[in-house]
Amino acid sequence: TGGSFDNRNVYTQVDYLANAFARTGDTRYRDASVRGLEFILSHQIPSCGGWPHTVPGRERYHPYVTFADEVTPGVLSTLRRVLQDQEFSFVAATMRERVRQAVERGDACLLQLQVRQADALTGWAGQYDNLTLQPAQGRTFELPSIMVQETVATLRYLMRIPQPSPEVVASIEAGVAWLREVQLQGMRLETFEAPAEKFANHFSSTDRRLVEDPQAPPLWARFYDLQDNSVVLATREGVRVARYSDIPRERRTGYTWYGTWPQKFLDKDYPKWRKRMPAQAKDRP
Fold first, then answer.
1. Rounded Cα–Cα distance for residues 11 and 79 (Å)
2. Strand, helix or coil for residue 50
3. How many CB atoms lie under 10 A from the CB of residue 19?
4. CA distance 192 to 206
5. What pLDDT, on a 0 to 100 scale, did the predictor assign at position 281?
6. Looking at residue 279, what is its pLDDT?
7. What angle do CA 108, 114, 120 make, to 5 degrees?
8. 226-234 long-range CB contacts below 8 Å, 24 or more apart?
9. Do 217 and 229 meet the contact criterion of CB atoms below 8 Å apart?
């Protein structure tokens, strides 16, 4: 059997079925949730402890350890719920122990794969080669890089760990510092009307451009260079380009290269987490 963890699949259904059983007592939901957990546990990647995009893989990047679209942090979030929530009390002790071990290995994987630049930890890539554990290319236009959305999702997961180790706390603080370091000031993403055009995968009657605006709130690129944090942009063919305007309109309007994904996290989620931390954690830089 196969399936995809991409776009928050499998683990969200496992959670839904557990909730349905708690509400109805219908054992079909319980049994289906257990089968889903078995599927999750059987596909944890041995080399690290993360999860792949899709099994069996149909594309080159499907077997990779995947952070894109909350694959690995999302799976781990559900597994933690199995250990903590009454909703999953039906899970047998033997499976619960397997879940505990999977969470332990998965958490270690997150810390291991956080991208390091010299002596500094930064964020996370979208996917990693499942053998070398090096950041890898996703789709042709998704070059190996540090990804902002994936970093935010991973940090949110780590902040839900009830009693984080010093290593987890250091990982979170480093990730937050990196998000602040790479925010772009004085630029705004503008959508404007343009001649209608039909592409292979979408239709567009607008275009997008970056404009200077000293009053604009912080903006983030989706991808940053693994070595120097420069913005990574590419064509559908996988050619890196220097400017947003160099991306052909098909990818400029059919993909989100810039956004404000970390803003709520930095303004609300991170301060709440810091407030919950004991004094020694608050003293960290």
1. 8
2. coil
3. 15
4. 5
5. 53
6. 57
7. 125
8. 226/115, 226/117, 226/125, 226/135, 226/144, 226/145, 226/146, 227/117, 229/117, 229/122, 229/146, 229/181, 229/182, 231/184, 232/143, 232/145, 233/257, 234/140, 234/141, 234/142, 234/143
9. no
DSSP 52: B
Residues in the chain: 285
Tens-binned pLDDT, residue by residue, of the chain (285 aa) = 689 999 999 999 999 999 999 999 999 999 999 999 999 999 999 999 999 999 999 999 999 999 999 999 999 999 999 999 999 999 999 999 999 999 999 999 999 999 999 999 999 999 999 999 999 999 999 999 999 999 999 999 999 999 999 999 999 999 999 999 999 999 999 999 999 999 999 999 999 999 999 999 999 999 999 999 999 999 999 999 999 999 999 999 999 999 999 999 999 999 999 998 875 454 444
* Residue written as token pair 């290269």: 257
* Contact call for residues 139 and 195 (beta carbons, < 8 A): no
User: 79 vs 4, 27, 74, CA distance in Å?
Assistant: 17, 20, 9
- Which two structure tokens, joined as six digits, stand for 204? 């567009």
Whose tokens are 């079909």? That residue is: 28
Distance CA 220, CA 213 (A): 14
A 10 A CB-CB count for 268 gives 10
The Cα–Cα gap between 261 and 152 comes to: 8
E strand or H helix that includes residue 241: strand 240-241
CA distance 109 to 117: 18
State the pTM of this model: 0.94
Helix (H) / strand (E) containing 209: strand 203-212
**CB contact at 8 A, 29 and 17:** yes
Alpha helix (H) residue ranges in the chain: 11-24, 27-42, 71-84, 93-113, 148-159, 166-181, 249-254, 263-264, 270-276, 279-282
